[in-house]
Amino acid sequence: MRVESKYHLDLATAFLLQEELRASGFALDEHCRTSEGYTVSSIYLDDISFSGYEDKVDGLSRRIKYRFRFYSEEIGDEPIRFEHKEKDGRLSWKRVSWVAPDDLRRFVASWSGPVVEQLDPRSGYVAPVICIQYQRLAFVHRIHGIRINLDTRLRWRGIDATRRSLVSDASFEPLREDQVILEVKVPREYAREVADLVHRWNLHWQQTSKYAICIAHMQRCLLS
User: Fold this and answer.
1) Is 56:63 a contact under the CB 8 Å cutoff?
2) 92: closest CA among 150, 31, 5?
3) How many CA within 13 A on the CB side of residue 147?
4) pTM for the complete prediction?
5) Element (H, E) at 3
6) CATH of the domain at 105
7) Which of 119, 131, 126, 127 minimizes the C-alpha distance to 165?
8) How many domains are there within the chain?
9) Which domain range does residue 141 map to?
């Protein structure tokens, strides 16, 4: 179990923070091939009333979230992570399994197949509603297991079951180009180290959800 906190930074501050992390025992994670980081794509599930989104906006402390995650712009032939994540306040835990791309396509097209069997009965009927993507530069502490993510270029795409990629061509960016989302994920026993980092950089915790940001933007686009 770990503690998660999120903050908003500008690009200049994010660059200086990277320099400190590199000098204090942090290294880029295994997905980072270049200093530009890598693409993270997530297809999120929700019900027809967008209860997951509403629960987040309303600040419900206990929530269940499902997403399919892959590290490219489009779905390829490699297995895809299926994440069942639960939160209780700022504590979170998750269960990860792997699904074949064709099983995901079957689930999107007809709500059938192995994916359905992995859904928690408490969730009811949930289906893919949005694909969220961003560029991630991720740092991991070699000893303490603290993970710090710097995410930029947040964008979303619609779900299209008729396409092999399952997502539409068009993408939309709900945040300013210079806005960075900082995620800090830390085992509870090392929360003090993170508190020191937050104090030095004068960071202010924000209730931030990429899913909530993108769903709200999608709804505004549909109404405009």
Assistant:
1) yes
2) 5
3) 13
4) 0.88
5) strand 2-10
6) 3.20.100.30
7) 131
8) 1
9) 2-223
